[in-house]
Amino acid sequence: MSGKTPEPAQIDRELAVVNLRRTGMTWQMIANEVGYASPAGAWKAYERACARTLEEPTAEARRIELDRLDALQFTYWEPAIQGNLRAADYVLKVIDRRAKILGIDAPQKIQAEVVTYDGTGSLDAEVERIARIIDAAEREAADAAIIEQHSEGQPLSLEEPPSAEGTTTA
After folding, report:
1. Residue 3 lies in a domain
2. Which terminus of the chain has a smaller tally of CB atoms within 10 A, N or C?
3. pLDDT averages per 10-residue partition of the chain, 170 residues
4. Which of 37, 40, 38 is closest to 48 using CA atoms?
């Protein structure tokens, strides 16, 4: 918005555009009805009216809420300053709410870790490193199974796990 207050005649004309559009008229029909030279003029009037009607009520609602918060803070301020912890809690809640309405709280910092492969090292070496980690984890699991068998008094198996082809060796 330009910040300039429109003339009452312009507001009436834009309101007529909005109402005609609600009835389902095309931009050309609206332009003819209201007296715009082109459909684009009717569309621009519609956009101005929508922006104004959305912006003004929001600003008014914000102002009303801030006035209410001011009254609450004024009511509880003296008791809070005198040491009333409950009043102090109310005042802090009012201050927090005002900061949210006005958007003056500092943005929250979020730490995120992203791991990417930048291509400066060898991809084959990285795959090999990961494979070694997986192999070590599998060996630890196998060792744990052997220890469990031995502790339960079961005879240890000398068979190796099945090979890739599905056969076993003794």
Report:
1. no
2. C
3. 73 88 88 94 89 68 85 94 95 93 79 67 80 86 66 54 50
4. 40
